[in-house]
Amino acid sequence: MPKFEYAPAPESRAIVSLRESYGLFINGQFTPSADGRAFKTISPATEEVLAEVAEAGPADVDRAVTAARTAYERTWSVLPPKERGKYLFRIARIIQERARELAVLESLDNGKPIRESRDVDIPLVAAHFFYHAGWADKLEHAGYGPAPRPLGVAAQVIPWNFPLLMLAWKIAPALACGNTVVLKPAETTPLTALTFAEICRQADLPPGAVNILTGAGETGRALVTHPGVDKVAFTGSTEVGKEIARSCAAVPGKKVTLELGGKAANIVFEDAPVDQAVEGIVNGIFFNQGHVCCAGSRLLVQESVYDQVVASLQRRLATLRLGDPLDKNTDVGAINSAAQLARIRELSEVGEAEGAQRWSPPCELPVKGFWFPPTVFTGVSQAHRIAREEIFGPVLSVLTFRTPAEAVEKANNTPYGLSAGVWTDKGSRILWMASRLRAGVVWANTFNKFDPSSPFGGYKESGYGREGGRHGLEAYLDV
Amino acid sequence: MSAPADTRTITGSSLREFLHGLPSVDQVGAEARAAMLSSRSIKTTAKQWALDAAISMIDLTTLEGQDTPGKVRAICAKAKRPDPADPTAPQVAAVCVYPDLAHLAAAEVKGTGIHVASVATAFPSGRTSLEVKLADATYAIESGADEVDMVIDRGAFLAGDYQLVYDEIAAVREVVAGPAGTAGQVGRAHLKVILETGELVTLDNVRRASWLAMLAGADFIKTSTGKVAPAATLPVTLVMLEAVRDFLAAHGRQVGVKPAGGIRTAKDAIRYLVLVNETAGEDWLDPRWFRFGASSLLNDLLMQRTKLATGRYSGSDYFTLD
Amino acid sequence: MSDTATARLAVRKTYKLYIGGAFPRSESGRSYVVTDHKGGFLANAAMASRKDARDAVVAARKAFAAWSAATAYNRGQVLYRVAELLEGRRLQFTAEVRSAEGLGARQAEAVVDAAIDRWVWYAGWADKIAQVRGASNPVAGPFFNFSLPEPTGVVAVIAPDASSLLGFVSVVAPAVVTGNTVVALASERFPLPAVSLTEVLATSDVPGGVINVLTGRTAEVAPWLASHMDVNAIDLTGAPDSLADDLAVAAAENLKRVVRPGDDDWTQPPGLKRMLAYLETKTVWHPVGI
Questions:
Q1: Do B and C count as touching (3 or more CB pairs closer than 8 A)?
Q2: Do C286 and A405 touch (CB under 8 A)?
Q3: Is A259 a catalytic residue?
Q4: pLDDT tens across C251-276, in order?
Q5: How many whole angstroms separate alpha carbon C209 and alpha carbon C223?
Q6: Where do the domains of chain A lie?
Q7: Which of B29, B85, B301, C24 lies in the 20 to 30 Å Cα band around C251?
Q8: Chain A closest CA to B26's CA: distance in Å?
Q9: What is the pLDDT of residues B148-182, one digit of tens each?
Q10: Do B147 and B258 touch, CB atoms closer than 8 A?
Q11: Phi-psi region of C101 (alpha: psi -120 to 50; beta: other; left: phi over 0)
Q12: What residue ranges do the domains of chain B occupy?
């Protein structure tokens, strides 16, 4: 019995008023799907059904794209840019006003700890809208020429790991640049996107500028292949990303950006600020239960400090608190779905079979829901599957290196190239490593830091295109 | 990092090399960790435990030029009976006074188990000769203090003369607790070493000064005199807790931590307890190993305690000023 | 008392200076008469002295460290909030601009709308100017080299004479959005809308001292700002031609960055000129090596 046992500190669910069923959001209205199909979304922590959600079929996709096209031609691209910006400022403000409600809803639907949705996800969502609101009437200064034009209708498909934040990353720049959007949230996490649709209504956003189609893979496919779409933006698995790239290859006018998987190396040198490096390792792979494309899932630790770093890491992991996502003291929430849990388990078994040593801190897993304890594999080498394949869960593979060049080689030895971490006290080494790491985001002495002004995106099979910053505008302009 | 084998003979350049070889502290990362731990939500039974624990860890302090015997008697009375309406409230760990009032404090708390801490070594500035500092410490002990809170020579530290700082601490320790190596003496006085982290400024300096004090024989490392701002902060205390954790692992000796100054509310105090819990660990959650240097904190803890017990918010009329 | 309605007497506003987040009268105790476009009495506005100007510069300097260190996001949020409050007072400002400048109702509304939108435009620059003005420079050698814009410090602004609100906003906002603090001397003829703006500033999240506003005689106060050695930049827009040259000469004593009077059309998009005028560029080199 611990001396100082933290009592339950639940965030109240009362702030959220869940509807029994949600329709599609097309042309400013909520409507059922044309064929009446619907599916359920559940809480991954308790497996309770949260709501029923419409499933968009091809007819709905068609209607939404048409609505977006009409809104684009008649309203949105014609509005004076400063007015577009003011709509986005309004949306940003409403998100701030409803911040707690959105955070609770996100944790309910996704399984992530309320502390993360409250302190990281939702503030970043508001920030993305604020930042991009300001670009709407300044595009001539963005470095794309004196009068860059939007593309038209953007089809956007987002994943379940940061539902509302991924929506913000897509919709904010698209609207700011003058495009209209049809967005499909992930099938396991539709609720904050649907609430965002309500927010668009509260902001009096012209109907059709934003359309939200809920559904699964089929809906997404229908959406990105629709001929009326000028731009496709996808965040999700590399597998599906390649499918989209293939299907859009035949349509040269359709611009595509992809933000896909990763297997980032988090590189710790012997002169790293060790206590903060351990925090960085923990944050890198256990933040959001490891459901992060840029997660530091490979720890590359310099062999000379291996024992110390791994011992400190294991000691630190013992203070991680796993449990009810709505408890304010929870650090590690639920795995998003049964399917994802199965995948994590499968790959972890592979890791053991391949000969790596598996370790987890003692952890009580709730009976209902989808849970996986923070897990560390040591004795991993590049040839192991758990060092190459994205697990997308709270599983860290630990490898060693001897020299900076070797660290770079190992870090780059992957088809992915989304992110990397470097921990060292030496500034020149940070810059040397950063210049050689083939990754779109390099975090030095920190990890998992995001900002609307900071471009994010991958090299190689982690995708192409950037989101955020001046660079992120390119995806939504005809340049 | 590996620590030198024989701490008694550590000298000059190897001391400097050791201290400068400690891992650096990334300020942004350390502050972020402290902030995250600050966001822990401590409610109901956990809060109850924490409030009582915090009260039992207070060194109830009066260190003013205008202190009088009357003031010291009042503070001792409060130390023994913090809540006039509730005898179940725990008593504090110690009272903390200037050396010339230590004899009075000792008489007042005799037999209660409450310790008498006296500041010494030309508190708060520490700017005088070693002879005077040792005489000050001796005076405190002879007046009945069983804990001495000394200050390090920050000027020497910042000028890189770690050996001088080390030697002074070791010398005061001998006066206070007997020669080094007699750590297990029953009934001996304890030495707290005040680093004055507000003047050290960087977290790297805090880490180095912590190790320096522990190597020289400190029983406790303490953040501040309370006379300089900033006094205790969560990031500084975090670094000190990491230091005592690592020192125990390297040397097998447990050293206590005392944040002092600027801790005014129960909420603050609970944040510190969370910091201790998740950094050094629950072995430090005990008045033997963790203290708060504070005065007004006590009333806020009592008020929160009363609210938990009665369900009503309280007011300052219901608690004594001293 | 009969129950015939009698005309209700208005409670008139006192128009004071805005220094360090507070509203003092001039230390000189003086005021001057402000009239509407027809010559009718509007108010006795404070007539600032050189000591008020000095105090304002002290307040601006004091506020600079925290304001320039705030995140760009925070500055943008604070300035956007000012626009929210301005919007709420549209009617008040429209009336004030009308009576000052003699504009028709629709014209005055258009001016106020433009002023609010101008403020929003600038607010959105806070977290972007560094990306437009900064750069990493491809030097020949194993060095990482980057240039960053930084605020210059305290900016004195002689606000436009004729455009009492839109012009005022257009010269003050670019200085503060870039992290500088401001001492603004309002139009001598039409000072009242600027003073009402200070009420908005005081009730928004703009920290005291970030924007300070003086009212009074341009010819009396401007030279003290132009020659002040702790002012880093000065916008001479509102200075009459006869005075502007002298002010520029005085400003040269500590090499202030100077914005000369031009023929600004306040209804047009402002461009980057004023923001860039108040930004220094810092270039940093760092070796790249193992």
A1: no
A2: no
A3: yes
A4: 999 999 999 998 899 999 999 999 99
A5: 21
A6: 21-260+463-476, 265-444
A7: C24
A8: 6
A9: 999 999 999 999 999 999 999 999 999 998 765 55
A10: no
A11: alpha
A12: 39-309
Cβ contact B245:B211 at 8 Å: no
**Cα maximum dimension of chain B:** 60
The type of residue at A323 is G
Homologous superfamily in CATH for domain B39-309: Aldolase class I (3.20.20.70)
Coil, strand or helix at B119 = strand
> Do the Cβ atoms of A431 and C80 come within 8 Å?
no
What pLDDT digit, counting tens, does each position of A68-80 carry? 999 999 999 999 9
Q: Report chain A residues whose CB lies below 8 A from the CB of C76.
A: 130, 134
Chain A residues with CB under 8 Å of B51 CB are none
Q: What is residue A172's three-state secondary structure?
A: helix
In the 8-state DSSP scheme, what is residue C18?
A: B
- B84, two tokens: 């006039």
The ipTM, to two decimals, is: 0.94
* Dihedral over Cα of A394, A400, A406, A409: its sign: negative
In whole angstroms, what is the distance from residue A245 CA to residue C51 CA?
A: 68
CB of A360 within 8 Å of any CB in chain B?
no
Mutation to test the B interface, candidates A11, A12, A275, A443, most B Cβ within 10 Å? A275
Q: Using CB atoms, list chains with 3+ pairs below 8 Å to chain A.
A: B, C
* Beta strands C143-151 and C135-136, pairing class: antiparallel
- What's the rounded Cα separation, in Å, for the pair A22 and A197? 11
- Give pLDDT tens digits for B113-136: 999 999 999 999 999 999 999 999
pTM for the model: 0.95
Which neighbouring-strand residues pair with A266?
A299, A421
Chain C residues touching residue A82 (CB < 8 angstroms): 117, 120-121
Q: Which candidate from A4, A445, A446 shows the least CB-CB separation from B50? A: A4
Distance in angstroms (rounded) separating the CA atoms of residues A452 and C127: 9
For residue A19, give the 3-state DSSP assignment.
coil
Mean pLDDT of chain C: 96
Q: Which residues of A touch B29 (CB under 8 A)?
A: 273, 275-276, 279-280, 445-446
CATH 3.90.960.10 fits A265-444, yes or no: no
Q: What domains can you pick out in chain C, each with its CATH number?
A: 14-287 (3.40.605.10)
